[in-house]
Amino acid sequence: MATETKAPQVKSNNGNILHEEVSRRDFLKTSAFVGGTAAMAGGLPWAMKQVSPDNGAATPAGKSASYPFSKAENVIYSICLNCHTACSIKTKIQDGHLVKIDGNPYSPMNLLPHLPEDTPITEAAKVDAKLCPKGQAGVQIYNDPYRLRKVLKRVGPRGSGKWQTIDFNQAIDEIVNGGNLFGEGNVEGLKDIYKLRDPDLSKELAADASAVASGDMTVDEFKQKHAAHLDLLIDPDHPDLGPVNNQFVFLGGRIEHGRKELAKRFTYNSFGSTNFYLHTTICEQSHHIAYKMMSGKDHMKPDFLSAEFVIFFGTGAFEANFGPTPMAEMVTDSLVRHNFKIAVVDPRFSKTAAKAWKWLPIKPGTDAALALGMIRWIIENERYNKAYLETPSNAMAKEKGEITSTDATHLVRLDEMVFLKPEDAGLEPPVDADGNPIAARVVMTEDGPALSHNTPTALLEGEFTVNGIQVKPVFQLLKDRAQEKTLSEYASICGIGENDIVELAREFTSHGTKAAVDLYRGPVQHTNGYYNGQAIITLNVLLGNVNHRGGLTTGGSHWHEDGSKKGQPFPKSNVAGGAPGGLHKFGIHVNREGATYEKSTLFEGYPAKRPWYPFTGELYQNVIPSAAAGYPYPIKALLTIKGTPVLASPAGHKQIEMLRDPKKIPLYIACDVVIGETS
To answer: Which residues lie below 8 Å from residue 630, measured CB to CB, with a gap of 6+?
Structure first.
């Protein structure tokens, strides 16, 4: 026989009884937990029923609704920063203390569909939207007894764990002015590093330093011209290293928009240092570059609410992805609401794999082999979107009702492996009515070579000779590459069955443009990650699913915090454009990103002392090692914020050794919530 047990008394921190008469069953009724259930139960109508004053279930018979957090005065809305999804949150306050965090029901990130904006806060307080465990752990972070609430100053050797609390103003004074701060000798403050302060002079020095690097000016000519200002440079014999200001380094982790723009403005334009870094290389760099090179956008996602089939490559809907909190509900909703299927490519049997139509446990790093196997089968069985791929330009695509086009028909020279230029094909480069050049490449038609910008349809396959030059369309090159191995060989590389590749490719091409592939870190965090990413993204291109309902989309983005988005409701600030009258930053980055060794004054033959990276940026893991090595120059001050390179970087224990030596990095300032591995 079932009985209703009396609920225990619930007391606050001061011992007062909060709600004596609420049973467990009533608690569940009054708290109106919506979460992911809302979508499966009809979504918004169900949620709105909970906030309705006529909903008798919300108040036990003869009793008042005594659940304290259904009252708006006990709720504060904010943003979660425990990951970059930055969910809107609803925090619950008890006696002035944070005791619970849920999702904000006004936000589409946390409730599908979300409450209308005009819903009174007194009613919205009764609806709790979903939030992941990491977000809910914000309560623990806030109440962590080791959370830093005051400025700490080191009073022992670095790494000794000896600290004292100091006043905030004292910290600012010591950071700016320096001195014998730690009993280890003089440490230069920021004012000593802030050498170059004249905006006009910074532009002149930058121009001439560039001229030296390009060989248009000699070092002696530079030194003679700027004899009065050589003390402003890191090394007058190498002016392309930039000013002493560059010896201040801002090393950020995953900092949010708004904070990022302000930090850039300070570092670049106010302080005049070129050394501002985020964490991108240890997070998603190869993913972003693969997408950028394929589409011009660095991130795209499937339209989960309308798709019929999605393949997750090394990621999932419920973990290891960008934005799992909103994504999980969209995928769950589609799985319940309509005939939606997912496949998961992952060596690990993940939570998402447990819900999948098919799980393919490939060997780590072999994602490109699986993608190329699928590409081979799709091409040989003509399951690709031919009408989309044979359209050479966006202009022609629009006439056919498409939004995008590809370079599948564009001809590539086989001798140089570059696109064939119109003039090389004996064609006149096109111009508009005003005589301005029109971007166009050469394609092949049944009637011979033509220009891409005004050709409705071109050939996808074949090998041709144009003006004595051997050429192939991009699509033919892709086909050749995919056919270098058999399906059996691709399956062997991946450690799966040949039939697995065939079944996956067949299902993927059975839904028109309402299918897509999603990838994130799993396939790309390898030495061949960029190529894994390109091969996987090509599967989407073969379907022609970009910007189609149920296909791949760039999303709606957001109102940018700097006010730069067209039509947004607040004015553009000067944050993005830099500080008014600010300095002109210049010089080689301390980690040598975006710089070419052979084009620098440091070029002395091979090998260089450390690698140079002309084609990439945000090399987070390479900043501290480069500074410690003093190549291309030593630094004097390091500021880390919202990141811990010692934990996040490969061989982080080596960075501990580097940071322990104050001679290598004399002034280190850490902005952290706890005393972490790096701070």
So the answer is: 664
What CATH number should be reported for the domain whose range is 300-553?
3.40.228.10
Domain ranges of the chain: 27-143, 172-280+576-671, 300-553
Higher pLDDT pick, 489 / 96 = 489
Give the whole-angstrom CA distance, residue 481 versus residue 478.
5
> Residue 196: which of 276, 268, 261, 265 has the closest Cα?
268
| CB under 8 A, 24+ apart: contacts of 614-618 | 616/281, 616/285, 616/289, 617/280, 617/593, 618/277, 618/278, 618/279, 618/280, 618/281, 618/285, 618/593
Mean local confidence (pLDDT), 613-620: 92
Instruction: Give 184-232 as a DSSP string.
Output: SS-EE-HHHH-----HHHHHHHHHHHHHHHHTSS-HHHHHHHTGGGGGG
Residue 592's CB: how many other CB atoms inside 10 A? 23
Tokens of 113: 């569909």
Q: What would the CATH number be for the domain defined by 27-143?
A: 2.20.25.90
Parallel, antiparallel or unpaired: strands 637-641 and 442-445: unpaired
Identify the residue with better confidence: 539 or 66.
Answer: 539
Q: Exposed/middle/buried for 514, CB within 10 Å: 0-12, 13-18, 19+? A: buried
Q: How many CB atoms lie within 10 A of CB 403?
A: 10
The least confident of 22-31, 218-227, 411-420 is: 22-31
Structure tokens at 368: 């490109």
Q: Which long-range contacts (C-beta less than 8 Å, at least 24 apart) are formed by 88-93?
A: 89/131, 89/135, 89/138, 90/128, 90/129, 91/138
**Tokens linked to 32:** 């109106």
Q: In whole angstroms, what is the distance from residue 524 CA to residue 283 CA?
A: 10
Residues sharing a CB contact under 8 Å with residue 289, sequence separation 6 or more, in sequence order: 298, 530, 533, 616
Q: Dump the DSSP string for 600-666.
A: STT--SSS-SS--BTT----GGGHHHHHHHTSS---SEEEEES--HHHHSTTHHHHHHHHH-TTTSS
Instruction: Give the C-alpha separation, 255 to 283, whole Å.
Output: 13
Beta-carbon contacts of 483 under 8 Å, excluding residues fewer than 6 positions away, are: 376
Percent over 70 (pLDDT), the chain = 89
Give the helix ranges, DSSP H, for 354-426. 367-380, 386-389, 394-399
For residues 380, 289, 442, 468, the Cα torsion angle rounded to the nearest 10 degrees is -80
Q: Tell me the torsion sign for CA atoms 286, 288, 291, 294.
A: negative
Q: Count of CB atoms within 10 A of residue 18's CB?
A: 15
Full-model pTM: 0.87
- Axis crossing angle, helix 529-543 with helix 285-295, rounded to the nearest 10: 40
Confidence class of residue 525 from pLDDT cuts 50, 70 and 90?
confident
Beta carbons of 129 and 111 less than 8 angstroms apart: yes
